[in-house]
Write a structure and sequence with these properties.
The structure holds two protein chains of two kinds.
Chain A lengths: L2 H16 L6 H15 L4 H16 L13 H16 L19 H9 L1 H17 L1 H9 L1 H10 L3 H14 L4 H11 L9 H8 L3 H14 L1 H9 L1 H13 L3 E2 L12 H28 L4 H15 L2 E2 L8 H4 L11 H8 L9 H4 L3 H43 L8 H5 L7 E3 L8
Parallel strand pairs in A: 1-2
Chain B lengths: L1 H26 L1 H4 L3 E5 L6 E5 L3 E5 L7 E9 L5 E9 L4 E2 L2 E2 L5 E6 L4 E6 L4 E8 L4 E25 L11 E3 L4 E8 L2 E9 L5 E7 L2 E21 L14 H18 L10 E3 L1
Antiparallel strand pairs in B: 1-2, 2-3, 3-4, 4-5, 5-11, 6-7, 6-11, 8-9, 9-10, 10-11, 11-13, 11-16, 12-15, 13-14, 14-16, 15-16
The chains are: A mainly alpha, B alpha+beta.
């Protein structure tokens, strides 16, 4: 059996076994609710805007409802799988994962989780294939990477899908510029990959024709967003702005600020964080352009800068970088450890086991006991532990950004070895999707 | 060529230093300013949270909803943990015989001074405000007309109220009315002593409990303004103000920064992976 096929099957098997039994209730409820609203013709963004208004009226504070705040292309990817779920269960399919006490139906939840995670699982398979064709060990690394498996199969978040779009956009960049622009446009489903736009544009500007092709691809991918911009401009723009106005949060250098209570204070801090982020990003974009660094290194560096300096950096965001970064010889793979650790002290691992631990009263009591014991044991320290993990990640990532500027030194063994017979060769050359 | 390399290295060191200074500066934010209120609305009700150097307050927690407010003391060094002090329960409090939780519509708003909650049942307007200082938590009830207010203050369990443990008392028992009530409680192996100071003399004060101990203080008051100050007495507050601040974040960031700069100085090597493909 070909190695890439073996790795794809291994990766698929692991993900399919885990997918039906674990979830991040809130994140998947967002996909569930938005798919349901989309298929019934409701305004997805209008619903979120309405909930935001209600929150603000109730509290008098500039709060946002954490609902569907992605580009509408996301709905085109997930809604068909939700539709398939409702076809399998035409009645009694109403899961409510947004309630304080989620309403879960069995066995519907298992089918729902498997189906709704399929786009991301399939994206992982594509990534494993593309990586294995270039470097078999890298493909295997991705297939077995606990962090990637956790985000895809257990969390159910779709950052690995963004990872696939970025990877393929990069691989197509030299030969198929329209497709590259289109895939990059798809990667914008979570708006944070916008940080790469100046680089893509700058690298396309050398040839006017190629630049137009890239923009054309980007435009085609953005048509659903244009549609919402036309039919529901206010609510759509509100949600897009929300991503830029969210108070500081997550695994980044600002984590210490979270211990200070006060939404107004945190909003002020967010402005400072945004300024720092913009400065870091502009400086780095300027430097990679001036130094004429390879496209791959530049993309990885900018995404790392996003993870270090963005006001909001969630644990799953690194998953959008991993497929692309694994092509880079300089990417520090240890970075994957930190978000995985961070989850234990943030959402907690047991939270993801709700689908299997809420099946009956005994297991549910066990869930409450384990979660309560964990929260009690780590409660007073969890903020400091999270900060420790955030700092470890930030410094290692910063060091990794630095390493991309250093001239590549050939490995010592290359000079020392007398002969290195087949079957190994060192790869080089420009990227392609083959 | 060597000059260019040296210049690049100098720039690298400068950028590293800026990064470390930035991280350390950000970690100083909790050290400089640690107090504040937050609000959120998980479903159809609104929750508020306060955190300061000494007190932590929950108002209408999503899992309970009736704790308005629940007062905790922050204790320990360098990592502080929550010590449950006392909870005002709307569910067990009444105004002119009407239940505060069930019979009134309430809405909370954060102001510069703290949290203000307005209660309304159509005829009566009542305002509850919560202000927190370094020393105490002040809960004030004000209405637009004289009212009979019956408040319940809970804790599982008080060791004693006004120096008496009232052992075996299940029915409410009247305590000699004073403007200041002293209570004691245990948290783990440690004993704490607190005081409840009323701005006005109440009509009466009752205590009651269950088979495990004393868990309720009931204050009945007639008038239009009652202010209740709650403070922990003789708690381990450090004489140096700096010790009450959150020192761990700056310490951690400084340690990380110094280690990073030290390691960078010796120019660690970056592992570069070679790509290999099978023929």
């Amino acid at each position: 059996m070909r190695s890439w096929l073996k790795y794809v099957l291994i990766g698929l098997g692991i993900r399919l076994i885990l997918a039906p039994f674990f979830m991040h209730a809130w994140d998947l409820s967002t996909i569930l609710e938005s798919s349901r609203q989309f298929l019934t013709g409701q305004d997805v963004y209008g619903y979120v805007a309405e909930r935001t208004n209600m929150l603000r009226q109730n509290t008098g504070l500039p709060l946002y409802y954490y609902g569907f705040a992605y580009l509408p292309q996301t709905l085109l990817i997930f809604a068909p799988f939700y539709r398939l779920y409702t076809l399998i269960f035409p009645v009694e399919n109403a899961l409510d994962l947004q309630a304080v006490e989620p309403a879960i139906l069995y066995p519907q939840i298992y089918v729902f989780l498997l189906l709704i995670k399929m786009p991301v699982i399939l994206a992982d398979m594509a990534v494993i294939y593309l990586l294995s064709r270039r470097e078999p060990k890298t493909g295997l690394f991705y297939a077995l990477n606990p962090y990637v498996i956790f985000v895809t199969a257990m969390w159910g978040n779709f950052d690995p899908l963004i990872g696939l779009f970025l990877l393929t956009s990069y691989l197509c960049f030299n030969e198929r510029r329209i497709l590259s622009g289109f895939l990059y446009g798809l990667s914008l489903i979570k708006i944070y990959t916008i940080v790469l736009l100046p680089l893509f544009v700058a690298r396309s500007l050398s040839c006017r024709r190629e630049f137009i092709k890239f923009i054309l691809g980007l435009f085609i991918a953005s048509l659903p967003a244009m549609y919402y911009l036309f039919v529901a401009p206010n609510s759509f723009l509100d949600e897009m702005l929300f991503q830029g106005a969210r108070p500081v949060n997550g695994m980044n250098v600002y984590h210490a600020v979270l211990s200070v209570q006060g939404i107004l204070f945190q909003t002020a801090i967010t402005r400072i964080a945004t300024f720092i982020f913009a400065t870091a990003l502009l400086s780095l974009t300027y430097m990679v352009s001036r130094e004429r660094l390879p496209m791959l290194n530049s993309l990885v560096m900018l995404m790392l800068a996003l993870l270090i300096f963005a006001p909001v950096t969630n644990e799953q965001h690194l998953a959008a970088l991993v497929p692309l970064a694994l092509l880079s010889q300089r990417f520090d793979r240890k970075l994957c450890i930190f978000p995985l650790l961070f989850v234990a002290f943030n959402a907690t691992y047991i939270y993801f086991a709700i689908p299997i631990l809420w099946t009956n009263a005994t297991l549910r009591a066990l869930y409450a006991v384990i979660r309560g014991a964990w929260v009690e044991a780590t409660g007073p320290y969890s903020g400091y532990i999270r900060y420790f993990i955030s700092l470890s990640f930030a410094f290692l990532a910063f060091r990794n950004v630095h390493s991309h500027f250093q001239p590549q030194i050939p490995p010592l063994s290359k000079h020392l070895e007398v002969t290195r017979t087949a079957p190994y060769t060192v790869t080089s050359g420009s990227p392609s999707l083959k | 060529m060597p000059n260019k390399s040296l210049a690049k290295r100098k720039i690298g060191t400068f950028v590293d230093t800026i990064f470390v200074v930035l991280v350390v500066s950000l970690s100083l934010i909790p050290f400089i300013c640690l107090r504040g209120w937050d609000g959120y609305a998980p479903e159809n009700f609104t929750s508020f949270v306060y955190r300061g150097e000494n007190y932590y307050i929950r108002y209408s927690d999503e899992t309970i909803g009736t704790d308005k407010p629940h007062i905790f003391f922050l204790e320990g060094w360098p990592i502080k943990s929550l010590v449950d002090m006392v909870e005002f329960s709307d569910y067990q409090s009444y105004v002119n015989g009407l239940n505060l939780y069930d019979d009134f519509v309430s809405q909370g708003r954060l102001t510069d001074d703290g949290l203000t909650v307005s209660y309304s049942d159509g005829d009566l307007q009542l305002t509850k405000s919560i202000k927190v200082t370094e020393e105490e938590v002040v809960v004030t009830y004000e209405s637009d007309q004289p009212i009979k207010l019956r408040l319940s203050l809970w804790r599982y369990y008080f060791s004693s109220v006004n120096s008496s443990d009232y052992k075996g008392i299940l029915q409410p028992l009247t305590v000699k009315t004073k403007e200041t009530l002293r209570f004691e409680f245990k948290d783990g192996n440690r004993s704490f002593r607190g005081a409840i100071k009323l701005s006005d003399e109440p009509l009466n004060v009752n205590v009651s409990g269950d088979s495990y101990g004393l868990n309720k203080i009931l204050v009945t008051y007639v008038g239009s303004c009652l202010s209740i100050k709650i403070a922990l007495e003789g708690a381990n507050k450090f004489p140096l103000k700096i010790a009450n601040k959150d020192l761990l974040y700056p310490l951690m960031s400084t340690a990380f920064g110094l280690i990073y700069l030290k390691v960078r100085k010796y120019a660690f090597m970056v592992k570069i992976r070679t790509n290999r493909t099978r023929n």
